Amino acid sequence: MSTVEASPRASLAARLFQSGAHQKLLAFASLVILLIGFSLASPSFMQTSNIIAILQATSVNGVLAIAATLVIITGGIDLSVGTLMTFCAVIAGVVLTYWGMPLPVGIVAAIAAGALCGLTSGTFVAKMKIPPFIATLGMMLMLKGLSLVISGTRPIYFNDTPGFTEISRGSLIGAVIPGLPIPNGVLILFLVAMAASYILGRTVLGRYTFALGSNEESVRLSGVNTDAWKMAVYALAGGICGIAGLLIASRLNSAQPALGLGYELEAIAAVVIGGTSLAGGRGSILGTLIGALIMAVLANGLRILSVAQEWQTVVTGAIIILAVYADMMRKRRMG
Questions:
Q1: How far, in Å, CA of 167 to CA of 189, rounded?
Q2: What's the number of domains the chain is made of?
Q3: What domain range is 112 assigned to?
Q4: Which residues of 48-86 are buried (b: 16+ CB within 10 A; e: fewer)?
Q5: Sign of the C-alpha dihedral computed for residues 246, 249, 255 and 260 taken in this order
Q6: Tens digits of per-residue pLDDT, 177-200?
Q7: Global pTM?
């Protein structure tokens, strides 16, 4: 009897392990533990203003992490998401502040610039066969330089663009439900997450995204234009980075051309913590959101506890190493 009962249980455990559900559960449990721990360590942690600050910080990193998730599921990597975010913010600044164009034009320009840069990275990877690490590293450096050149190395302010700060700092939910001042940036994060989740789960692009990461050669041999689909994924990820650029520029009320470096590491860490495999072929947007929340809660909690900035950086680096190691162990067990 025990043998008969053990088999379905083992099978269920194996399915959970294969799907990565256990990783999401572990990440969620870690998030709960962090929330409880910081709440006990500091009474000010669970104050409404601090929770809103955490959500606001998660909105930018979360959107970037969603973009990184799409690329990583294909078996690639994108080191340019942080500087691409900054570049898109600068483009919005040029269109809205320097050229005086209407707000919708600036929004479209930022997202289009991100999609174009993503498409360029995808072309390097798919058509020129440059390894994703090198291709996106080169794109990161180019975008960093272009942001400084286009802006003249100076911040671009949006003081003369009515409604721009409302993109991130306003609260549509607060206007409808008084007493619930959830920033628009958080609302945009969840909208982007739902759209990305739908694309991954219900569209042809989503199916090919997973297929490219699982076995690209088999997909190519079946007659699919893998290069075109891979370029489409990078372009979509770039457009999402454009949204992140609008969010951070709106939050700061300025486009800071020197900003961006380091954001890609936190985005990738959130992706891996959430259960997406660096080998490709497996991942979820929900897991990435949990990972982004963990990174934001950890940074906020350490800051409230007055932990020095350099030690916060050490902790972030350690988390990235542990997350990658956990991913490697997961692949070994599956193998």
A1: 11
A2: 1
A3: 21-328
A4: eebeebbbbbbbbbbbbbbbbbbbbbbbbbbbbbbbbbb
A5: negative
A6: 777 788 999 999 999 999 999 999
A7: 0.91
